[in-house]
Every structure is written in C-alpha cells, then in structure tokens.
Amino acid sequence: MKILDFLQKENIPFKRIGLYKEAFTHSSYANESNAHIPDYERLEFMGDAVLQLFVSEFIFALHPEYKEGQLTQLRSKLVREESLARFSEELHLGELLYLGVGEEKSGGRHRESVLANIYESFIGALYLDCGKEQVIRILEKTIFKHVNEVNEFDDITDYKTKLQELVQSDDRKTVSYHVKSSTGPANAPEFVIEVILDDMILGTGKGTSKKRAEQHAAKDALMKMAKKAS
C-alpha cells in the first residue's frame, strides 16, 4: 500500500505529503540512499509528545474517579511500545515503511519497536500537517477504543510505573533514566540504560529500544530493592 493510497483511504486532508514520507522512512533507508533524506526520528519525538497530551486529556475526562497514579498507569499501558505496535498493525503502517535492504531482510517491517516508532512518527506528521482534530480521529480508531480492554492484551508488566509508585510512596524524588551506552548498527541497536535516584544507580537494563531498556532497568531496580528489603 502506498502512502497516498493510505491517506486517501483514511480520509486525511493532507497538505504536505513529504511529512508522511519522512514519518515512514527508517534510518536504514536514509543511510543507504544517495540523497540526504531525513528519517522518522524527529517526527517520532513530536508524536510522542502529542500522544502524551491527547491520551492524558482523554483518560482524564473518561475517569474522573481516578487518582494521579491510576491515570499514569493507564496512560503508560496505552502508549508504551507493545501497545503502540498493536495499534500500528491495526492501521497496517508497516506496509508503508521505507526500509534499507538489511533491515528488510531481518524482519524490520514487523519488528515491534519499529512499528511503535512509526505510529508515533505518523501521529507527529499528522499533527503538524492537519492539527488536533485529525489526530483525535485516528486515536479514536486505535488507542481510545482500547482503553477499557487494555488489560486484556497487557501481557508485559509495566515496571517503570511500579518503580515510580514505590518511589513516590516513600516521599522521594522522581527517578530518571540515562543512556549508558548504545551499540550496534542503526538498524539493530542495543541500548544500556541506568535508572537513577538522587545520584544513585538503582538498576541497569538492556534492550533493542530505549523504552524496552528502561523497562528492564526498572525491573532490575525493583528486584534489587526487594532483595534488600527481605
């Protein structure tokens, strides 16, 4: 499926199709191209911010009875990598990807981290091109309709939220995550991330995306804290 066909199928009143081409351009394709073309990383950054805001607005209005911790946990489940990859598949966004040869052969078109990234980059492009109304329409077709069933396909524990709730219950500061190292080629990176509180490293995790490595770091921190408490 071509990008133009997809935009027309979704009735998106696009003005700058170049934004959407950028949203679906993987770094492997950009690196292999002779032309200096941008990949989706900047739009992914924008889309992440847009999702945080609009999903927060939606669940805030939907659940007036929820406290901050409950809202944070629900939002985290809806916008984390595993969930976004599912929503990306619902829209068949993987079919629109521009991939390098190696990334294509290694299954990048179906890789969870890539699918989650292009959902964010697509939302970023859509917001910049068409504004909030069109973004909300797409969110209603994907994220919003799954709010009440998110726990049914939630097969991975959200360790970051669990760690933050534990830290907050002890009246301590917010934890932060820092990239210790990033190795491997652009199409198959491995991140090592540390979770830190008051200049103290609580845990370390590895992953093929920053989000996954952060979850592993939070899990490591929780296991160490539990062992220390026992």
TrEMBL record:
PROSITE patterns according to UniProt: DS_RBD, RNASE_3_2
Cofactor: Mg(2+)
Ligand binding (Mg(2+)): 44, 117, 120
Keywords per UniProt: Cytoplasm, Endonuclease, Hydrolase, Magnesium, Metal-binding, mRNA processing, Nuclease, RNA-binding, rRNA processing, rRNA-binding, tRNA processing
Reactions this protein catalyses: Endonucleolytic cleavage to 5'-phosphomonoester
InterPro entries assigned to the protein according to its UniProt record, in alphabetical order: dsRBD_dom (IPR014720), RNase_III (IPR011907), RNase_III_dom (IPR000999), RNase_III_sf (IPR036389)
UniProt-annotated location(s): Cytoplasm
One GO molecular-function entry: double-stranded RNA binding
Active site residues of this protein: 48, 120
Gene Ontology BP, a term: rRNA processing
All residue ranges annotated as the DRBM domain in the record: 158-227
Main location: cytoplasm
Domain RNase III stretches: 3-131
GO annotation, cellular component aspect: cytoplasm
EC number of the protein: 3.1.26.3
CDD domains in UniProt: DSRM_RNAse_III_family (cd10845), RIBOc (cd00593)
Purpose: Digests double-stranded RNA. Involved in the processing of primary rRNA transcript to yield the immediate precursors to the large and small rRNAs (23S and 16S). Processes some mRNAs, and tRNAs when they are encoded in the rRNA operon. Processes pre-crRNA and tracrRNA of type II CRISPR loci if present in the organism.
Record note on quaternary structure: Homodimer.
Family of the protein in this entry: Belongs to the ribonuclease III family.
PANTHER family for this protein: RIBONUCLEASE 3 (PTHR11207:SF0), RIBONUCLEASE III (PTHR11207)
UniProt name for this protein: Ribonuclease 3
Organism (species): Catenibacterium mitsuokai
Lineage, highest ranks first: Bacteria, Bacillati, Bacillota, Erysipelotrichia, Erysipelotrichales
Gene that encodes it: rnc
